[in-house]
Amino acid sequence: MYEKSIGRPKRDPFDVLIDALTAANRYDFLLAIVPIAFAVALVGASVLGVSLEATMVVAAVVGMVVIVDACYLNPPTERGPT
What we know:
This protein has helices spanning 13-23, 26-48, 52-73. It is mainly alpha-helical. It is flat.
């Protein structure tokens, strides 16, 4: 049993990615930096032989700076639909 799409053309996955990236704003990218910082810290600790605690402290400081910037220094000012 197969499902058929009715009148819905398939979209190219690359076009979907481009649409998602253009819809993202500054705060979406800032929030993405936090887990990326921790992932880079884990990889850096294992590849460079630096202690895990030192890299986690650096990642936590990066995350803290990003969140403080996004929430307090440059908070969102746009009002969404009510």
